[in-house]
Amino acid sequence: MAGFERGAARRSEDRIRNLFGTPDDGDLARGVKVPEGEPDPRSEPVAILQCIARKIGATRRPGAESDIPAGATYMGQFMVHDLDFLTRESTASGNMLDLALIYGDGPRHDAAFYQVPSAPGKRRHLLRLNRTRPTVSSPPWGAARDLPRVACPHLDAKGVDQRSEVLVPNTFSDSNMLLGQFQTVWALLHNGIASTLAAAFEKQPEYRGRGADPYGAAFELARRINRGIYREVICADVLGNWLLPDMFDRLEQDGFTSQNVVLSEKTPVEFMAGVARLGHGLVREIYRLNARRPNEGIRTLVRHTSTGRPHDMPLTEDWLLDFSNFFAIGSSTPQKARALGPHVARAFAAHEGVGVEGSAEGLVLRDLIACSRGTLRSVPSLIRRAERLRPGLFDGRFAQDERKWKETLREWLADAGVPEGRLDAVAGDPPLTLFLMLEAEADTGGGRLGALGSFIMGETVAAALPVEAGDAALDAARRQVFGDEVPGTMSAVIAWLQRHYGFADGARLHPLNGDAPLADGSVRGGSGMLDTHVKSSGSEIPLVEVTDYLEMGRLVTDWALGRKERPATVEALKEQLDGIAVVPDRVKAVEFCQGDHETLVIRLPVKEMMEMAIEDMTDPERDGSYPFPQFYSDFYRPGFSPVMTPLDILMSRVGDYTIAQCK
């Protein structure tokens, strides 16, 4: 790969200590060992993991947040997928974090991912992007801020309006809407760099002769520059936020190279099956996307894709991310990722939940199974090796005192229902992800990874980062595009892209001047993220906003059947609804009313809310549609995956009609 080489020290085998090499028999994890192939739910190992998964899934931590900006969750997910995606350029010396998720094998081999040239003789040098889909209240041609999506009425199972295919190298980039938006950022950055360089090269004499290729040169340089910025962002926004500060400082002093890991064709299982899967624990249940969509549940965001809702693709502008809600841009305060620990978002804990459609395993169970098979090292083995390579790493940390952490694991497992006869063996050699969850909670209060997790992630990622070789042409190209200020953080990348493309209010990457939006969508000293009609705050009654009707229905069912205590106060109600619905401050009391088979209970709407709803539905500035909860459309116009089951519909309907407020 031109311009990127492995560090000389990394190529010298006698100077490399390979932490994740083939372990000896005594180093293998054996506490819970699941054989390869389809897991047998009746086997003892899977039964033990099911007990662990159930406790993790049932544990609630209302309001618990990490120190990690919400955007670093999805930048980390993008990085993990990129590391695991091999292309023709992935060398035998190791996987590279090379933006393979956007470039694939390049325009020569993967032409479909690149724009058709605007004139004969031009080489493909720009990546495809999609314009947002117009609505009644949006411009007829939206901003190019979506993944490229297509449909063919002759080949697809559904009509041409079903945008079911994404033209990107790895369709996993469309596994959730947030991840897709991060993919578009790197495609936008490439196009901004490449188009600037191509325009400059077209005017230079050396590119005017026969056989000259200014567009090919622009592509190659733009890719190298983009990869260099990507490397800096990974160091600053992923490692800088996920790792313990002292571990990050050590890597920074080493120039973000690893002397402890050498990657071959396969990324270490301790990272991919262990640390990387902890990213699921960082996922929030509710996200603020922008001023128009201040509360969206993760179940909706996972479904809002070409496979889940092809009829809603491409995105409309109201779904585009305001990145100041995900990274600190200007004076904005981004929302934080969920705290790390032995707990996850409800959607990941449920049977056949998000990420495992059609499977009997929940995502938590799948993660536990992944780190309980193969040649993964045991936790004690990893701690010993890490301590030898980084003396003092565990001083004062959870992993330092083996007797103490084994006692903690034993106590936690006993409460999970693990058989008494297996407690000591599993506590002494636990599934790696469980250990790392408890370690993060003990070492950082769930703010970021603990010591062992930081070591595994830091060394693995550092080994995968390319080292850029000196190049006068590359330096000149950078100055041509950025001057002396090359962006090195996600915030700087977003700010540069907004300046470069000048996206209008409805599609801005961040609010004007980077100021944080106020409650009504406006910002101090500038315009709002979205150019929409907003009523004055005095004329609206804030509603309870349900972000997950399925979980709402399950909770209501538990109340109705007496399986869960009904909250007696608003504070208790908010605690039970954490991650399911947002209760406005106007609510001062809560009252339950349950009929019987002889009494018809007719619940009348609040008079003021009924008046507000009628006024809203007759407002001439509205687009004329009634805002049904999205799950109705998911039922009547199902995509390809996930498909709602009859029980899902029942629970969602219960969640809707129980809490409906004239909306």
Structure description:
With 663 residues, the chain is mainly alpha-helical. Among the domains are: 1-17 and 36-58 and 243-269 and 335-460, no CATH class; 539-659, no CATH class. The protein contains 25 helices and twelve strands. Strand 7 (286-287) and strand 8 form a beta hairpin. Helix 6 (177-202) packs across helix 20. The longest helix has 29 residues, at 214-242. The relative contact order is 0.14. Residues 1-17 and 516-539 have low confidence and may be disordered.
Provide a quick synopsis of the model.
This protein is 40% helix and 4% strand. It has 663 residues and is mostly helical.
Question: Rough shape?
Answer: globular
Helix content: 40-55%
Total helical elements:
25
Major sheet description: 2 strands, antiparallel
* Low-pLDDT segments, ≥5 res: 1-17, 516-539
Regarding quaternary structure, what we see is single chain
Provide the spatial order of strands within the biggest beta sheet.
1-10
Overall average pLDDT: 86
Count all strands and give the number.
12
Structural class: mainly alpha
Radius of gyration, CA atoms, in whole angstroms: 26 Å
Proportion of residues in β-strands:
under 5%
Alpha-carbon distance between the termini? 56 Å
